[in-house]
Amino acid sequence: MELINFKTGKLDIKSLSLTELKAQMEQIGEKSFRAKQLYEWMHQKMARDYAEMTNIPKTLKEKLEEHYSYTSLKEVCVQTSKIDGTKKFLFALSDGNLVESVWMKYHHGNSVCISSQVGCRMGCRFCASTIDGLERGLLPSEMLDQIYAIARSTGERVSNVVVMGTGEPLDNYENLIRFIYLLNSEEGLHISQRNITVSTCGLVEEMKRLADEKLQITLALSLHGATQEKRCRLMPIANQYPLDSVMEACQYYFVQTGRRVTFEYSLVGGVNDTEEDARNLCRLISRYSTDYAQPFHVNLIPVNPIKERNFVESDKREILNFKNKLEKKHINVTIRREMGRDIDGACGQLRRHILYE
C-alpha cells in the first residue's frame, strides 16, 4: 500500500510504524535510534512539524523535509455547543480538502469522533456526509491528526475514539487498520482497542475481514431497519448487501472476537419507529441470540435534522415505547444522548460544512 501524500507525492512519515520508520532512517543514512525519537515526537508529543523536535539535528530535519511529507491538519474553525460544550472542528488537509471532527466531554472521559474519508459514497438517506459523494479516503496520519489536533486545542487527554464521522471506515480498510495499530501503539497515545469504535453501514466482506484481524475494538453496524425492505428504503447500500448476510457477518464478528456488536438504529418518525418495526427488530435479534450469548446491543438514535431531507425525529413517547418493547424481550438497549446538535455536530450531520456557509 502506498502511503503517499496527495499533494506532495512524498511518503507520509506519520503513517509509518516504528519498524518501518527505522528502516527509512537506515535508508537515508541515519542511526535507527532516530526513529524512536521521531515516533515519540509525532505520536506522543504530537508535534505539528519537524521544527518542534528539539533533539533532532538540523541535518536530519533537512533530510526529512526533502524525503517525506509531514501531516499536520490546519484548524479552519471551531464551533462550541451552547447546550453541552461539545466542540466541532473543521480541518483543512494539505490538498485543500476539508473534514470535520467532534470532541465530546463525558464523565468517563473525553471522546473524539473522527472522519475516515473526505465525503462518502454510501448514500444513506438521512445523512449529510454522503450528499456530495466521495472525494477520497484519508491516510492513517490524517485520521490520527484529527485526534492530535483536538488534544492540543483542548489541552485535554482523549480516552475514547469513535470512527463515525464522514465516510465509511471499511471503505478505507487498509488505512483504517493501520490507523488503529498506530493509535493503540505503546510508543504512541496507547489508546486501548476496547476504547475504539468503528462504524459500518454493512460491507460484509470487510466486516469478516475485520473479524479475522481479531482486534478488541467495538464494531457498530448502522442497522436502521429490521427488514430488508425497510433497510433499502433508508440505505441504498442494503441493495448490495442483504440483511441476512449482514447479520451473519455480525455474528461472525462476535464469534471471532468475543466482542458484542452495537446496532445503531436511527429512529425516523413514521418510517421505522412503529410497533411493527419494534417487533421485527426483536425477531431479527432473537434469531441470532441464544440463552448463553447476547451478541448485540441496540443503540437507539433519534434522527438528527439536515436541511436537504424531510425526515423528522420520532416523538419522545414513541422512542420510549420502542425501547420498552426491546427490553421486554431482554434485548440490551440504550437511547443515545445526542451531543452537539445545535452546531450540526451530532450523528448524521457532519459534512464539509464551510462549503455550505
Explained architecture:
- With 357 residues, this protein is an alpha/beta fold.
- The chain has helices spanning 18-27, 33-43, 58-67, 140-154, 173-184, 204-213, 228-234, 243-257, 275-287, 316-328, and strands spanning 11-12, 68-69, 74-80, 87-92, 98-106, 109-113, 117-119, 134-137, 160-163, 196-200, 218-222, 261-267, 296-302, 333-335.
- Strands 3-4-5-6-9-10-11-12-13-14 form a 10-stranded mixed sheet. Strands 1-2 form a two-stranded parallel ribbon. A two-stranded antiparallel sheet has the order 7-8.
- The two termini are 36 Å apart.
Write the layout of secondary structure elements.
Layout: E1 11-12, H1 18-27, H2 33-43, H3 58-67, E2 68-69, E3 74-80, E4 87-92, E5 98-106, E6 109-113, E7 117-119, E8 134-137, H4 140-154, E9 160-163, H5 173-184, E10 196-200, H6 204-213, E11 218-222, H7 228-234, H8 243-257, E12 261-267, H9 275-287, E13 296-302, H10 316-328, E14 333-335
Parallel strand pairs: 1-2, 6-9, 9-10, 10-11, 11-12, 12-13, 13-14
Antiparallel strand pairs: 3-4, 4-5, 5-6, 7-8
Helix pairs in contact: 1-2, 4-5, 6-8, 9-10
